[in-house]
Q: What sequence folds into this?
């Protein structure tokens, strides 16, 4: 019987999605599993924070990790690769909340809701602001995966045009025009809002910096929902201070929590959220549905099939 350890907080309602397959596994649900449970575990279902090199070395029977997140940059990839452990993610479940978050930031930046929110806290009736519309503006989406394509879909409902960027310029349903990575300058020049959704890999670390910001319109805004390290944060601060770009909506940062002395906190052209764009009250429900699909494949075919991570590439 397959031994499964779940450290993701789940209730009976969440586990019910496993159906009849639940009777074919030995299931342990515990946020603090005892060493014996780890040693015998074959399948580990986790958010990833407890998946350390030490745990991998103790889990002699581990062969599959179902990660309840999309990014794997925080995992001990070398240890997993050395043991040839299969890693799957819940990539795709973040698309709706993150796309909604991106569109909320676009609307707030266009209509200056964040600026009026500050004035409300100060009890100031001040109508001075350059208010624009999302209508007929262009959203450039760097990364056309699940989140990026959902952003394009929702942007269309606001009357926006979409340009996407991926490695080879492969067409994507719902994105009006897709460019290859070597044509990123074109995307930056044409976009009124640039939404970043790429995974963090060695190739995307500080993907956007001083040079790229100078390519953008001085009225354009950058929205980063990916990882803080994808952006050269110091260069972004300078670009915002000097008016090289118009604004930013930031959910992720190079250092989290964002240090109190960061100049980003005080900028009136910046919206800050504390890495919450992927959070949803339906998160575990959607994640368990993917795990159930992979578990069924594992029990019938020997290995999971959905969202398998290439550990060498890092996504």
A:
């Amino acid at each position: 019987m397959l031994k499964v350890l779940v450290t993701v907080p789940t209730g009976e309602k969440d586990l019910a999605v496993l159906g009849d397959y639940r009777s074919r596994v030995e299931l342990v649900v515990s946020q603090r599993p005892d060493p014996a449970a780890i040693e015998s575990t074959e399948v580990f279902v986790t958010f990833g924070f407890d998946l350390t090199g030490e745990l991998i070395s103790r889990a002699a029977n581990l062969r599959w990790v179902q990660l309840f997140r999309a990014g794997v940059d925080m995992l001990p990839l070398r240890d997993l690769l050395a043991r040839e452990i299969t890693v799957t993610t819940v990539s795709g479940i973040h698309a709706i909340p993150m796309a909604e978050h991106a569109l909320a930031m676009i609307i707030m930046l266009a209509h200056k809701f964040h600026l009026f929110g500050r004035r409300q806290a100060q009890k100031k009736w001040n109508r001075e602001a350059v208010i624009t519309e999302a209508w007929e503006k262009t959203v450039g989406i760097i990364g056309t995966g699940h989140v990026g394509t959902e952003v394009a879909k929702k942007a269309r409902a606001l009357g926006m045009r979409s340009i996407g960027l991926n490695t080879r310029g492969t067409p994507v349903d719902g994105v009006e025009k897709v460019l290859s990575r070597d044509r990123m300058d074109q995307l930056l020049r044409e976009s009124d809002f640039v939404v970043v959704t790429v995974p963090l890999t060695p190739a995307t670390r500080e993907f956007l910096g001083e040079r790229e910001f100078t390519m953008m319109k001085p009225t354009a805004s950058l929205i980063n929902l990916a990882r803080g390290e994808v952006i050269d944060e110091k260069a972004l601060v300078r670009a915002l201070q000097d008016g090289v770009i118009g604004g930013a909506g930031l959910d992720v940062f190079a250092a989290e929590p964002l240090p109190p002395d960061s100049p980003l906190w005080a900028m009136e052209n910046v919206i800050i959220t504390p890495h919450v764009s992927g959070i949803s009250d339906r998160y575990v429900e959607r994640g368990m549905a993917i795990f159930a699909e992979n578990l069924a494949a594992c029990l019938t075919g020997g290995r999971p099939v959905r969202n398998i991570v290439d550990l060498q590439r890092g996504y």
